[in-house]
Amino acid sequence: MQTRRAIASFLLLAALPVSLVIPARSQNAEQVAKTTLKVGDRAPDFTLLSDQWKTVKLSDFHGKKNVFLAVYVLAFTGG
Amino acid sequence: MDSPAANAAFAKQIDIKFPLLSDMNKKMLKDYGILKDNDVQGQTYQWAERANIVIDKDGIVQHIESGGGAINPNNAMAICTDLHKKQTSK
Question: Cβ contacts (< 8 Å) between A16 and chain B: which residues?
Answer without folding.
Answer: 1-2, 47-48
